[in-house]
Amino acid sequence: xxPTIPQPAFTKWCYRAYxxxxxxxxxxxxxxxxxxxxxxxxxxxxxxxxxxxxxFFGSEAPYIGVFNERSILRSIGTxxxxxxxxxxxxxxxxxxxxxxxxxxxxxxxxxxxxLMLMPLIIPGVILGISILxxxxxxxxxxxxxxxxxxxGLRPGLPLVILGQFSFITTFATLVISARLQKFDPSLEEAAxxxxxxxxxxxxxxxxxxxxxxxxxxxxxxxxxxxENFNTTLMLVGSDSPLTITMFDKLKQGSTPVxxxxxxxxxxxxxxxxxxxxxxxxxxxxx
Amino acid sequence: MKSDASRLGFYLLFAPILLWLVVLIILPxxxxxxxxxxxxxxxxxxxxxxxxxxxxxxxxxxxxxxARTAIMSIAATALTLVLGFPIAYYIAKLTRGRTKTTLFxxxxxxxxxxELVRTFGWMILLRETGVFSNALQSLGLVSGPVEMLYNxxxxxxxxxxxxxxxxxxxxxxxxxxxxxxxIEAGYDLGGSSTSIMREIVIPHxxxxxxxxxxxxxxxxxxxxxxxxxxxxKDSLWFTGMxxxxxxxxxxxxxxxxxxFLLLGLSSLVVFLGLKLSGQTLSQTMGRS
Amino acid sequence: xxxxxPDLECRDLAKSFDDFQAVDRVNFEVPKGSFxxxxxxxxxxxxxxxxxxxxxxxxxxxxxRIKGRSMIGVPPNKRPVSMxxxxxxxxxxxxxxxxxxxxxxxxxxxxxxxxxxxxxxLERVGLPGVSARRVDQLSGGQKxxxxxxxxxxxxxxxxxxxxxxxxxxxxxxxxxxxELKSLQAAFNTTFVYITHDQSEALVMSDNIAVMNNxxxxxxxxxxDVYHRPGTAFVAGFxxxxxxxxxKVTAVNGANISVATDAGVEMKIEAADAGLSVGQNAxxxxxxxxxxxxxxxxxxxxxxxxxxxxxxxxxFNGANSSVTVRSTTGGLLKVALPQTGDYxxxxxxxxxxxxxHPKQARCFQLxxxxx
Lengths: 286, 288, 370
Known about the structure:
The structure holds three protein chains of three kinds.
Chain A: H1 9-35, H2 54-57, E1 59-60, E2 63-64, H3 70-103, H4 109-121, H5 124-146, H6 157-181, H7 185-193, H8 198-227, H9 230-235, H10 242-252, H11 256-283
Chain B: H1 2-36, E1 38-42, E2 45-48, H2 51-58, H3 60-93, H4 97-112, H5 115-126, H6 131-138, H7 152-176, H8 180-188, H9 193-221, H10 225-231, H11 238-248, H12 252-277, H13 281-285
Antiparallel strand pairs in B: 1-2
Helix pairs in contact in B: 1-12, 2-12, 3-7, 3-9, 4-7, 5-7, 5-10, 7-9, 7-10, 8-9, 9-12, 11-12
Chain C: E1 8-17, E2 20-30, E3 35-39, H1 46-54, E4 61-66, E5 69-70, E6 81-84, H2 96-106, H3 111-124, H4 140-152, E7 158-162, H5 170-187, E8 190-195, H6 198-204, E9 207-212, E10 215-220, H7 222-227, H8 232-237, E11 242-252, E12 255-260, E13 265-269, E14 280-285, E15 290-293, E16 305-314, E17 321-326, E18 331-335, E19 350-355, E20 361-364
Parallel strand pairs in C: 3-8, 3-9, 6-7, 7-8
Antiparallel strand pairs in C: 1-2, 1-4, 4-5, 9-10, 11-12, 11-14, 12-13, 14-20, 15-19, 16-17, 16-19, 17-18
Helix pairs in contact in C: 2-3, 2-4, 3-4
């Protein structure tokens, strides 16, 4: 139960064993993904054929490494492009929302807050198709009315960005609001009292205070955008982000190139994740 | 003057959220509903009616897949709770300081990694030429390769793996807030491990259990990758069906109806979960 | 044993963590139906001692008996003791009735019986009819009583209380002291109470153990502990006292003469202080043992008289006092009798102080140095 309550040694032993097995279960899939990135074989499976870095740097078929595989490199670029846009938009709108919900009282605030949380409980696939349906009918209407083409409203990167933005903003809002709630408004009042303008006070006092939360939510947004699949799948056009490219390749049959990409993804995501936690830790003391 | 300025500031803050929620959430869902109640009667000719919903209930494959998805999601949620609770309890109550942080981080790291990578890992482990099959063969337990992929058990393993963090995190948070002295008081008054679990620990952890279950259920219901990749082409998952209608068959009307049914089910479950536990959405989700 | 068996006895009970001795071979017994307090500063080992009695910590060595039965190896849920926790630990997910009935449910008592006994015990603690309320609907004092009721319904041999009054505000604390004492008398159960607040211990207890650094410095009645402290620590910790470091200049049977560091001569009457000439000693003198005299004519031939000037008047109602700076330079805190004779006393007034040689306590200073 808890350490101060005596328990039979056997019970304790079983409990520890279960916890150990659980963590093995957690680590196993990621471990095999990483290990097979170095297998000198064209399939990511046993037997072990020896160690190679060809799946990273190889340039001769069939050993085309990640760094020489055009389609993957291009989709990494696409993902990064989408992630930067989504993260930037989400942080800006999230910060505005935080100020709105923490600093203002208005009618219907509770309802608006509920609405703001909605994207969390809408399945990603639905979010994707609803935006797809809406933008397509908008495009149809506009094209019928004007006779011009509206490519931005057809499946493609702009829609992917909007689709991901539509739910990632909720996370950014929650993280930044939590930080703003801890802000002592008298600091801002002190700045006003010392002659700062309202905007100046926000820029010089409040925003620096919010910075850890802003950075953390930007990092989390990038992570979520990079690994999003469900919403992106419905909105993607000809340029596909990394997860979609990998999914297509996986359906055709996997090669260790995918392991190599995955390994890189694991390293980058773990690093980003730890970074965001560190930033959130730093905001804890104050 | 001043009130005019602050009024302007208020509207400037109000504009983005309004734009976001109206253009990307509310209008698309209204649009989705309108499309779901239009029936195609000819090329570019539509009539309003519930024909798509009728088609859903008329075709056993559709509603059976729907029911199957719901039941499997409930099973995955229950399994995640049963497997995750002891882990959360261990982290919250039996570890301290550095060990606690480390275990918690070890729980989180897999979930910063793309779901695709995680599922890929399970494919490497479970498939015919995979690690488990080879291990069993070399141990002499089986004579030939074993296919462990493309069945419901594989889907279950993947679903639990994908969503367990969302069970463990809220549980650790609520269990952390349970004062050790309450457990000690229970013992002091003659309670046993089971009765204390039932009467003190679980009632206290209820908010965490509810929010964990809601999130896990929604994630399972709306999952696409795991059932498709681990369950194979015939995995019969409802999101797969929506994808087929939209992308392969290009029957958006039926697809929209499917989407609305899925949304209805997930909203219903969230609503029931919150009602049963007497919580609000803001309490449950707002702190995630 | 022909004696009546004590409810609780500890024999050489010790607990050490790594290289820290939290409780150091403690011996005591608590007779049936008495109120026993363990008083000590925080970190003195009293909480560890209490948790060993309740079973949440196991002793490194020694024995612990309740009604003559050794409790070593008996888990907390099988011991005939109940505990009122520092923050009460009422279960917030249950109503009051379920809280109080918890222990009975664990014993498999029937529902109707539980309800009857819960109602009974709630009535005895003066809270009839609160069964259906939630924990957070009660006031601090009511929660205290529910916590006690929750234990008493199990009719334990010993009730342990872990500073339960600490969280209350001053007024309520004063009130609860009296109430706890009368509850104990009404239930006639053995109470073991730990606290760092001397007034709680002095008001409620039949016996007090003063604890420091894992050891019992003294066990005795409140009167003994206050008026006849056994060690320098007890004299300094319990009650208010002026303390001086001094050197023994003469010993003549029970009469001892000392000279303080400031050079003041003091005459003390102490039977078994065990002091010899030349030793360093510590002298404790209670503020209320000192008499203020305004004119030299009233002094007569008393000993331990010194002249001084009022340095400050510390008005605190019934506990008012003055500090007097004697002509030799030392400061002396003197309690002001509330008879009205001294209401006009002001800073700068010249006064004389006087005290009887029997009123001071004198202890050998450990190691002779300081």
